[in-house]
Specification:
The structure holds two protein chains of two kinds. By secondary structure, chain A is mainly β. Chain A has no helices and eleven strands. The model of chain A has no long low-confidence stretch (mean pLDDT about 95). The chains are: A mainly beta, B mainly beta.
Amino acid sequence: DAGVIQSPRHEVTEMGQEVTLRCKPISGHNSLFWYRQTMMRGLELLIYFNNNVPIDDSGMPEDRFSAKMPNASFSTLKIQPSEPRDSAVYFCASNRQGNSNQPQHFGDGTRLSIL
Amino acid sequence: QKEVEQDPGPLSVPEGAIVSLNCTYSNSAFQYFMWYRQYSRKGPELLMYTYSSGNKEDGRFTAQVDKSSKYISLFIRDSQPSDSATYLCAMSALLGTSGSRLTFGEGTQLTVNP
């Protein structure tokens, strides 16, 4: 079975540019999570969706960050304008929410470098 | 104080050793406990998943949860060089169908030397 698919795997861009990260969750999963991982702060939850609806975006650092989930099989995380401090690895994860919470499965991440 | 505390290591052991990794937590609402393994430049991979207190064994791996002490452990028997990775504990409270937040430890970096 295909896991969570993220693209691109690596992104290098200059500050001020718009960055769009993409995620395809596992088929049948109805919750999707965006995380950021840095050496200093570890894994931080940015936002999560349930049935394509944003449930909690309290982890989104600033208005420069936005996320959408137009359908059950696709989500984007956008940074505009990007800054060097946004450099990190961004992970997408998904699971099936229901009467019991199933563990989250992660993609391999997008390594973002803002110059 | 962080909700989940995990010693970041690094931890270095010889091949064949028994490895013990631990996390403590402060939120008594946590009911689901997970261990993820993360290789360099890869995403976290679910290793063990337990609900409430008790032990769970899967091959060389054993997860223990002691809710009274708010303490969870992962034991690796007969450790192998391929076990070299960062191990992250994670936990969540049951929030029904509205979704759930995972709270992660900062991860322990393990190296198993041949």
